[in-house]
Amino acid sequence: MHGGQAPADERIPAKLIGAIVAVGSLAFIGILTETVMTVLFPELMKELGVGTSTVQWITTVYLLVVSATMPISSYLKRRFPLKGIFVAAVILAITGSVIMIVGHSFPVLIIARIIQGMGSGVATPLMINIILEQSPRSKIGRLMGVGSLVITVAPAIGPTVGGAVSSVLPWRAIFVIVIPVMLLALIIGLCCIEQKEPTQEARLNPLQFLAIVLGLCGLVMALNQAGVAAGAAVSGQPYTHAAVFAVASLIVGVLSLLFFGYSSKRSFSPLIRLGILRDPVVLLHLLAYTILPIVGIGFGYVITNLAQLSLGTNAFLAGALVLPGALIGAFFAPVGGMLYDRFGPTRPILTAFAVAIIGPVLLLAFSMHLTPALLAGFYFIFGLSYALGFSNIMTSALSQIPHEFAPDGNAIFNTMLQFGGAAGTALFSTILTIAQAGAGAEGTPQFAHATAVGGSWTFATMIVICATAYVALVCAFRIRSKRMRAVRQ
């Protein structure tokens, strides 16, 4: 998969483009509706008569289901035809949307989000599997970049779309609008998705599936509840219940993942073949791919909250500050893929992240004197560079894995991407809450100052995370170059 090794004139088949568009549209809508919902919380709280801690389950449950569904993508890819998986994902997504439109109670909306999460959890890995399996070798970088474009544009525009639609239409209109798009994607997918490799007699081990679901849900819940407990503790509210729940979730999550790893080693047909992680190059890439979304996805939360609570902007402007960096950055993801195809992984990835870290460094330097323009401008530096390099990390890692294990690598990387994203919001919301504790009421100068201090702590944390990922990637490329030299000798 290394850039420059395959003939540069390989054509991308029209049917492959159609398949990526169809499955990508479904993945896009799944991620879009996930981020749209966060803007609608105040409206939903009024309509359903629930509090903040309850309404956030509409997003948390969705994230948990997506995280739990992604690990079985490797099994589904081996066992069922691609077209069948796609049709099932569309049916789940449309069913969930219809229930969101007609449902008028909180439990019904939760059921709808669970069904939607199952469809979305299948769609993203399916798109990546199609790209990995059917792309011409010389074009794989740019097509993975297109896949990354789909995954990164949706969360960038989600809050803005949610705010714009809900200001002129009832919030349920969002789910009415997406159904025709999904039906069109279904038609394109039925015409264009091709089965290039035969299915296998893979078996689903129910114990392993239960272990991975409990493991991921336990860790996401532990992060979520740890944030709630920390926030309650520093503001002088009861926190014991949330703290106990966080510790219990962490124990269940870790023990379940340890059991999954032990069971996978002994199983003839494991749910995910974890042997690929014995390669330190793949493991170091995975570390970077897991922790960078903590910053990449967490930034959306940090900027919108800093803008409103520290700089006093309205919700629409706060959402708009994220848009240039996230949107333009996302459209540059295929450019990053082209650079990968041309120069190989090392220079495009390391250069992109050397520039990306400048964003949080500048934000930290100016943290107590930020304006909306500086906030948007410094984030733009990070967003553009992050998008240029991020999808290449997965492409680079999967190039080190034998072709038949690529679906397993895809399942692991996509699952950890989801986990990193969930961790980012939980981590940064906790840091801001701790900084704001005891600073008086929202809207006062003291509260605005405390939020700015929390912002500076957050940017320092981001720098540490980016630097750790950068070191992991440098080590991975060093090991890889030593191997290549040894092979040549």
Name a few traits of the molecule.
mainly alpha, 19 helices, 0% strand, 489 residues
Task: Give an overview in words.
It is built from 19 helices and no strands. Helix 1 runs parallel beside helix 8, helix 14 (333-343) packs across helix 17 (372-398) and helix 16 runs antiparallel to helix 19. Helices cover 80% and strands 0% of the residues. Residues 1-8 have low confidence and may be disordered. The two termini are 21 Å apart. The protein is globular and about 65 Å long. 52% of the residues are buried. With 489 residues, the protein is mainly alpha-helical.
Number of helices: 19
- Strand content of the residues, in percent? under 5%
N-to-C SSE string, H for helix and E for strand: HHHHHHHHHHHHHHHHHHH
Compute the number of strand runs: 0
Roughly how much helix do the residues carry, as a percent range? over 70%
Largest sheet: none
Average of pLDDT: 85
Shape: globular
Q: What radius of gyration results from the CA coordinates? A: 22 Å
What is the distance, rounded to the nearest whole angstrom, between the alpha carbons of the first and last residues?
21 Å
Structural class: mainly alpha
Low-confidence stretches: 1-8
